[in-house]
């Protein structure tokens, strides 16, 4: 079911979105641009990022892509600086980029562990660190894409749950540290979403499916546009009283 954008909700505002080449990041980028935002879109996948920019060509806002490895601290700071240099302001930081793996905890390599934490946690920290001085000038806000995995234990995804749990706590802690300013910091926690991240997801061949039943639902997976709709609401002035929140959009998985 397609959503109707809210005209001009982000007119005159600038948003920086990570993971913009596909999935939730692309849907968020296009939704923001459809609502009038200037979007500085980051991803490491150059070809697919260019596709996102092409898809936005006829929208009211503007999308400019920057090929960026957000796992690198210096790249996070450089991207924020470039966005502010281009648009002279920053109103929204949407930390969407993420990676996921499923494997036995005892078999997780150091390389895979470090990459997971670098993208899912470190990037959000360093981008926030770089963006907050500019967001304070515009009464802006940060929206982090966490996961239901950050709110509950899950077998075979220990590192992923750790990374998203850290993001949940970063959200709450940042919101409180800046509680005396207009800055808002929130997170949304999706469950299963039909994205390239999920379509390429593989479980170990010998998993115990009984252990996985508690975080599954009979309802269908969400579409990326479902998550983007919530993210854009939370990032908008309509959500001015929402701060330090972790909003689940998981078809009720974490309700049980």
Explain the overall architecture.
With 256 residues, this protein is an alpha/beta fold. It has one domain (14-249): 3-Layer(aba) Sandwich (Rossmann fold), CATH 3.40.50. It is 40% helix and 16% strand. The chain has helices at 23-34, 46-55, 73-87, 110-138, 158-177, 196-199, 224-235, and strands at 14-18, 38-43, 62-67, 92-95, 141-145, 184-190, 193-194, 222-223, 246-249. The strands form two sheets. The chain has a seven-stranded parallel β-sheet, sandwiched between helices. A two-stranded parallel ribbon has the order 7-8. α3 runs parallel beside α4. The longest helix has 29 residues, at 110-138. It is globular, with a radius of gyration of 17 Å. The mean pLDDT is 92.
Summarize the structure.
The chain has 256 residues and is an alpha/beta fold. 40% of the residues lie in helices and 16% in strands. The chain has one domain (14-249): NAD(P)-binding Rossmann-like Domain (Rossmann fold, 3-Layer(aba) Sandwich).
